[in-house]
Write a structure and sequence with these properties.
With 154 residues, the chain is an all-alpha fold. It has 7 helices and no strands. The protein has helices at 4-21, 28-32, 42-66, 71-96, 100-121, 126-130, 133-152. The longest helix has 26 residues, at 71-96. The chain is elongated and about 50 Å long. The chain starts with a helix and ends with a helix.
Length: 154
Amino acid sequence: MKWSYLVIPITVFLTAFIGSTLTDPNSSWYKSLKLPSFAPPGYVIGMVWTVIFILCAISLLIMWNKLPHNTLFWWIIGIFVVNAILNIGWSLLFFNQHLILASILEMILLEASTIAIIILAWPLSRLAAGLLLPYGAWVAFATYLAMNIYQLNK
């Protein structure tokens, strides 16, 4: 068995786990926020993130095991690492520190890193890149949602 089939899913799971420990949609602070009418319920958000993390793990496994480990590959992997840190950082800024505006700025960086991975991976593996499209779409939606939350709670 290749080590990547164990290490990559564990790494993705740890990223999701750390982010989820910083996320508390049942906190009194979050419950006190005015939310836009289109805000999905927490269980939907949790399900979407679960699917996204599974797709990310599959995408990473495809890239790690199918692509040549050249300079472009290592750039993609490096951006993935930055993306994971940004993903955790958003939960820290929004739910833990209650810094809505800072979390929005951070989400823009998260979206940029997601788009960069998709663009860089596309010519190498359309499947691996395509698996990340829902992630990019969700982060864009989440950014729009956070902007609305910020506007409603200034």
